[in-house]
Amino acid sequence: xxxxxxxxxxxxxxxxxxxxxxxxxxxxxxxxxxxxxxxxxxxxxxxxxxxxxxxxxxxxxxxxxxxxxxxxxxxxxxxxxxxxxxxxxxxxxxxxxxxxxxxxxxxxxxxxxxxxxxxxxxxxxxxxxxxxxxxxxxxxxxxxxxxxxxxxxxxxxxxxxxxxxxxxxxxxxxxxxxxxxxxxxxxxxxxxxxxxxxxxxxxxxxxxxxxxxxxxxxxxxxxxxxxxxxxxxxxxxxxxxxxxxxxxxxxxxxxxxxxxxxxxxxxxxxxxxxxxxxxxxxxxxxxxxxxxxxxxxxxxxxxxxxxxxxxxxxxxxxxxxxxxxxxxxxxxxxxxxxxxxxxxxxxxxxxxxxxxxxxxxxxxxxxxxxxxxxxxxxxxxxxxxxxxxxxxxxxxxxxxxxxxxxxxxxxxxxxxxxxxxxxxxxxxxxxxxxxxxxxxxxxxxxxxxxxxxxxxxxxxxxxxxxxxxxxxxxxxxxxxxxxxxxxxxxxxxxxxxxxxxxx
Length: 503
Description:
- By secondary structure, the protein is mainly alpha-helical.
- The protein has helices at residues 5-23, 37-41, 44-54, 62-74, 77-82, 84-92, 109-122, 128-131, 133-164, 172-181, 193-205, 213-217, 220-229, 248-251, 271-275, 291-297, 305-322, 327-330, 342-348, 354-358, 394-398, 409-413, 428-431, 438-442, 482-486, and strands at 234-237, 282-285, 364-366, 379-381, 418-422, 450-458, 464-472, 495-499.
- Among the domains are: 234-292, Alpha-Beta Plaits (2-Layer Sandwich), CATH 3.30.70; 416-503, Alpha-Beta Plaits (2-Layer Sandwich).
- Strands 1-2 form a two-stranded antiparallel sheet.
- Mean pLDDT is 88; it is low at 287-302.
C-alpha cells in the first residue's frame, strides 16, 4: 500500500501536536518553553479574527501571516497536511460507510458561517474560537479525553499493583515514565466537558454522510483557506474528469458533486494522483500559463450579495446578543492574573483551554454564564474550587494570543485579580465569636493582605472573651482566592473574592 507525502506529513504533524499537548502541562518546571499554542499562532482564522476585533497586530501572530501567504501561493495544504483535526477525521472515520450527502450543506452555508464570524469580530465580538477546528480538538482533549485517560490509567495501575503484589517493583519505572511525561498532572473534571466532547463527536458523525464533511462544508478555517487557495500557483492536470474513467470523483475527499477540481476544495492530499489507474494526474506550477483563464473563471461564492449582506446583519445581531451580560454575574467574574481589560481579554481569547490545563491549583474553569454568552469556554477563576498559585505564571506562558499577558513572576505576584471581602454574617469570629484565622495563615503575600486584630467581646452567655478577628488590607490583596478556597466553612465561604471593575 502506497502512502502519499501528504499522509506522512499528516502523521508527523499529528505526532508533533500530541507531543506538544502532553508537554503543555505542569511537569515540575516553572517554565514551558514550547507549547501547543504554536498551532494557534499559525492559524489564519485566529489571526484575522484578532485583527478585526482588537484593531491591532501582535508579533505572536506572525506565523498566521506566513500561513496566510503560503496558502495563497500553495493552496489549501494546511487542511490536508497539517490540521490535526483533519488527520483525526481521516484516521478515525476512514472505514465509515457513507450515505446520502446533506443537501443543505451544499449551499453557501460555509461562507455564511465564516463571514458571520468575521463581521461579529469587526463589531468587537470575537467568536472564532468557538468553531476553530484546533480549539474544538484541544477542548475535547483538555476537558474530557485527557482527564478521563489519566483517571483510567491511574485507577488501572492501582488495580494492577494489587494483582501482581510484590512483583510491582518490576514495572515501577514504566509508571514513573507515564507519570512524568504522559499522564496529566491532575485529573480535573471541567464544566462543559461533555459539550466540548459532543461537538467533537458531531464532527466525526458528519462523516457518516460524506468524506471530510466538516472540512468542506462547515469549517470556517477551511473556508478561509479555500478562498485564499483560488490564487494558488498549483494546478491539477488534467483539468477535468477523464471521459473514460472519472474515478477521481469517488477518490477525492473534498469533491463537490462533479466538481472535484476547484481549488477552494482541493487539500492537496494527492489521493487522486496515487490512485489514478492511468498515471495521468499530476500537479504543476500552472498559474502563469493559465493566469488569464483562471482570473476569468474565478468564482468565489462568498461574494454573492445575499450571503454578504446576510452575514453582515447576522454578525451584527450576533455581536449584540453575545455581548449582553448580567450585572449580577459580573461581580464574581474573575479573570486570570494580568488581565486588566475585560473588553480586550474577550477580543483576544481563542478559548483553547490551555491556561486551564496548566493551572497549578486548578483555579481556572471554562465559563458558562458569568460573562454571558460571549464568555462561553473562556477561563474564569472559581476560588472555592481552586486558587491562583502565588509562585506560578504558567497561564500567561501558554496563552497563544496574549489575552493572558506573559508576566515575569515578580510582576505577576502583584497583579490584581480581585479583592477579598469578609462576610461578617458567616465568618466564625464575627458571627459565632469563635477564633479562626485560617485565611490569614494561608495568605501568601509576605506583608499579609489578611491580618487579625485582638478584640474583647461578650459571648452569647454574657461571658467576656478575647478573640482574633480577621480583616483585609485592600491595598495588598491581589485576589488570588486561597482564602476563599481554604475557608473551613461548608458550602458558602465566609470570605469571597469579588472582581474589581475593569474597562
